[in-house]
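Sample 1 of the test manifest.
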Amino acid sequence: MVLLETPPTPELLYLCSAEPAELAEVAAQMRSADLAEALNQLPRAAAAKVVANLPFHVAVQVLDEPEMECEDEILALLSEPAAAQLVEAMSADRQADVFRAMPEEQRAKLIRALEPDTQAALKELLRYPPETAGGIMTTELVSVPASWTVEQTLRHISSVGRAKETVYAVYVHDPDTRRLRRVVSLRELIVSDRSVPVSQVGDGRQPLSVAADTDREEVARLISKYNLLAIPVVDEEGRVVGIVTVDDVIDAIVAEQTEAVQRFGGMEALDEPYTRISFVRMIKKRAGWLTALFLGEMLTATAMGHFEGEIQKAVVLALFVPLIISSGGNSGSQATSLIIRALALRELTVKDWWKVALRELPAGLALGVILGTVGVIRILLWQALGWYDYGVHHLLVALTVGLALIGVVTFGSMAGSLLPFLLRRLGFDPASASAPFVATLVDVTGLVIYFSVAFLLLRGSLL
Amino acid sequence: MVLLETPPTPELLYLCSAEPAELAEVAAQMRSADLAEALNQLPRAAAAKVVANLPFHVAVQVLDEPEMECEDEILALLSEPAAAQLVEAMSADRQADVFRAMPEEQRAKLIRALEPDTQAALKELLRYPPETAGGIMTTELVSVPASWTVEQTLRHISSVGRAKETVYAVYVHDPDTRRLRRVVSLRELIVSDRSVPVSQVGDGRQPLSVAADTDREEVARLISKYNLLAIPVVDEEGRVVGIVTVDDVIDAIVAEQTEAVQRFGGMEALDEPYTRISFVRMIKKRAGWLTALFLGEMLTATAMGHFEGEIQKAVVLALFVPLIISSGGNSGSQATSLIIRALALRELTVKDWWKVALRELPAGLALGVILGTVGVIRILLWQALGWYDYGVHHLLVALTVGLALIGVVTFGSMAGSLLPFLLRRLGFDPASASAPFVATLVDVTGLVIYFSVAFLLLRGSLL
């Protein structure tokens, strides 16, 4: 037996693939997720050769890994019968993933090579968009009629257990209508009397379920809230059509998290790893929002144009423009991040907007006073130390900056916190309220606030 | 039996609590997570009364819910023996959560009222910080000696199953050293021959495990990557001291997600729901970063001061300052969000910084050219339509803005993408690179780029 001290590299796997027996030994020491990652790093043709020479059940396990990124390309490089045999043995939800990733032509060809049953199940799963319960569910589950005993059910699990995605939740259906009546955990079965009907095991509450078009985020919330290992997906008649398991939900949560951060960063979600996305697709995802924000930000040039006369008379005012407007954007970005998460976690609902406004008003004022004070000190200090000369009216300039900061930061907190509510109210996702979006919104208003304060305080002196 | 058409409200629960039998009926129709949420909404004294009158096992289930937010306050309102009895019956990881939330005095009092065994287990768990494997693990697990058969193991699970956090993973230890030898899933046991030794079930690979001080993010990554239901936490001798289950990991991932978005928004993570945190604590979490960013942004005033002469001569330059520097901040914020996630998902490591730089340089240039073109068109259009007069040198002004945008957006993409690497290299969390942080960094440099381009192009004409 080959014994490895360090994990096998992708290159070693490829070298071994010439000798299937050796490859099998090396692969047996790796977990399938690691094997999948190693294959991702190989050129496609080499990866396909490794897959072709792996023991069949290992190859299936590897292709079943959500970590596997290029299974469509690998399958395309294998002979059609070999590809069909592998796909046939994969779990139903991963089959659907693979087919979704394939170009139309390859998909049509490969699907014809599959068993009629698999074809039918696959066509069913492919109907659902990937961000819904139907899109991440699997059809492999254990469902038994309510008339069975615990003993019968356990024996059934023992016989089919290897083939099913999860055996830890057993779905008990009505023998006639096939409606879902109860969900029993394997744990409850194991600790139960073997002769009891399975319909009497566990608590009698109506089981939780979702529809096939339920958003995956909602599925994740339910699984997480009720600590489930899987949740059944039911059709309109209440019959189970699939289950979403906790591991698929974790993958969905992690994907949502990536989306959330990218969108908060002011771009469309990539939906692909940064390291794999093509240059052109990445630019497209970034340029859209960047241009939209740029067009919005153009209003600052218009606003500044309005105050050109003031700037001409008191250039000193222009010096503090970036400082003041960015402070508003920063406090807005903080408030938005708080509210987006509170809405996502259902700590807040749309009707709570006024509670948030009542909280953010004093919060913005408090933060504004802090920054305003620092700003005033900065100007007076520089003046006193002779580091910069803000002119004879430096006291008034400092006061203008201080008061403008209070106004801008307060406005930033209010706008940043209410924007997600407004977006939801208008039917958009509150998470579209990115940090740059808020900053742009606050920049324009911030300029107006600043120059208005300046106009009020400096009229007759500087202006 | 009281049959409810709509879910019981917190108020109804409180009303029923006068009649424990009625309360038990109403509560039986609710899931414990929902019951916990209802109790969160009641005044503490009312919630404590409901808990006191709930059937004992239901009260324990409710307190076991991570959704429960005020269990420390409720326990404080119960009699000490009642509180101790409830805590005694809770799962070990939740006991630790409750004690962590308690004020020192209450904790010391309550811990003395517990059984010596529970006290010892609890003191052990409380040693670990809450963001580590030790801090989220439970000590309730099924561990059997390698000498047992499948039959013995299954019988053991049936007898202890109800008391253990998860029975779906069984930890097989060496009978002498108690070192972890193998992890066997309940699924594998169920489909195995009953007479086989448990040490021969499943694959023979070294089981995955983590140390008690492993970060919870790393634990989540392993559970998610290898699709585990639980991961064992082992001590230095390789003995299992606890397990982290998938549901605790989901809670940890969701908490990390909230932290990530809040930190990316430019603040310290709240670590408490927005709706529950006190005003003063919230201001503290926000004011720190806001002030730090403000101090950094002050450099813009210094930079602008350097160019006061130029602005005096060509006020038109000041008009585009917000537009240009915010575009740099926006492109930087996009790049940062991409890299933070790619690092978190391990798609990139620190040594890939140059690959990212080689990709962000052309990406920044491409995005800069797009915005620069839009900017030039905007200025020339306004001039042609007579909406604004940028003076006789408007062509040069447009060119200055266009070129400055290319420079600033490129710098923004580069700085935004490399900042997370730099932070990690300096030993900080790359996720400290918030959108406002990047914007501040880019604002100062953006001004220098803009005025340098202006100086080169406009010398002899406007300047």
